């Protein structure tokens, strides 16, 4: 009898992962249409007016997509909200990550009415609202390594499949041609990117990017891991003690090649956060992947319709 193939391990973290991955917690199922419809009316005609009153009373400027509520709740409402974000929060919460608790999803499947997610509100301030001089990046590094190690300790229930949390399409602001359909593995994921970006026939400087892109796609196979997908500083909440107390906006979460979590933060080389995620948090292990991702991003950006 042939031995089972050894699972591919993430390049990062180099230590701290179990030899045998933990079993993934149960992933929530999509709610019934009638349930989604019920919650839509609750959100739209009860919670939105309550939020407007609550924010006026506390002198909080209204936001077109985020509605603060009493009792530590928050309602997210815009055209790109999907129930899968709630499933991602549930999964992250079950893994022991500092994610909001998903409560309900409301939708009536109408282009005239936005869907919405009700969730718990987390403490802390967004990292991008804090003076960089007041941020202890050594603490952030330790916290992020712990969080990412925890996320990567769980085996995907979908095997090598590159897909959304629940096994379906992958969404997100930096995902090419989103919603990107589920792909059987990393090779199929790369093939879809080739198709979506129209690699064939590119000329001039684009042809140089295609060459670098092919070198990128020829790298050894990567592990498929649970990925936030937009782990930038505006989605990280920090407490008064400098520690991470929350990660928000799980709309881009999916099962993706392990480099994606880091490389997607480094698309713009001049940004301090991307350099921090690359050089400090992940110790530069994704240097080749980052170079390749940057090379093909101008081609990917043509397809970003999220």
Distance between the termini: 47 Å
Question: How many independent structural domains?
Answer: 2
Beta content comes to 5-15%
Q: Judging from the principal axes of the Cα atoms, what is the shape?
A: globular
CATH topology of the largest domain: the name is Aminoglycoside 3'-phosphotransferase, Chain: A, domain 2
Q: What's the order of the H and E elements?
A: HEEHEEEHEHHEEEEHHH
CATH superfamily of the largest domain: Aminoglycoside phosphotransferase (APH), C-terminal lobe
Mean pLDDT, nearest integer?
92
Organism: Cyclocybe aegerita
Domain Aminoglycoside phosphotransferase: 75-262
Protein name: Aminoglycoside phosphotransferase domain-containing protein
InterPro entries: AGP_Transferase, Aminoglycoside_PTrfase, Kinase-like_dom_sf
Features:
306 residues, Aminoglycoside 3'-phosphotransferase, Chain: A, domain 2, 2 domains, three-stranded antiparallel sheet, 10 strands, 34% helix
């Amino acid at each position: 009898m042939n031995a089972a193939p050894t699972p591919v391990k993430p390049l990062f973290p180099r230590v701290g992962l179990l030899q045998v991955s933990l079993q993934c917690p149960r992933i929530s199922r999509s709610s019934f249409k009638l349930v989604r419809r019920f919650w839509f009316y609750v959100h739209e005609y009860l919670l939105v007016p309550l939020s407007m009153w609550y924010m006026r009373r506390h002198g909080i400027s209204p936001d077109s997509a985020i509605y603060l509520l009493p009792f530590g709740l928050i309602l997210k409402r815009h055209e790109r909200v999907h129930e899968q974000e709630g499933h991602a929060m549930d999964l992250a919460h079950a893994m022991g990550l500092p994610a909001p608790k998903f409560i309900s999803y409301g939708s009536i499947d109408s282009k005239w009415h936005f869907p919405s997610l009700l969730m718990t509100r987390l403490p802390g301030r967004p990292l991008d609202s804090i003076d960089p001089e007041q941020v202890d990046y050594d603490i952030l590094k330790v916290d992020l390594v712990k969080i990412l190690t925890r996320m990567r300790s769980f085996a995907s229930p979908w095997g090598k499949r590159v897909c959304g949390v629940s096994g379906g399409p992958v969404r997100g602001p930096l995902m090419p041609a989103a919603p990107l359909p589920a792909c059987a593995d990393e090779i199929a994921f790369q093939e879809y990117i080739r198709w979506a970006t129209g690699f064939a026939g590119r000329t001039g400087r684009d042809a140089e990017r295609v060459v670098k892109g092919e070198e990128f796609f020829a790298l050894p196979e990567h592990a498929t891991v649970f990925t936030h997908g937009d782990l930038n500083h505006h989605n990280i909440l920090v407490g008064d003690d400098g520690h991470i107390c929350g990660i928000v906006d799980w709309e881009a979460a999916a099962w993706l090649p392990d480099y994606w979590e880091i490389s997607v933060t480094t698309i713009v080389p001049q940004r301090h956060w991307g350099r921090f995620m690359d050089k400090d948090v992940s110790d530069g292990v994704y240097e080749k992947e980052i170079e390749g991702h940057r090379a093909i991003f101008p081609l990917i950006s043509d397809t970003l319709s999220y």
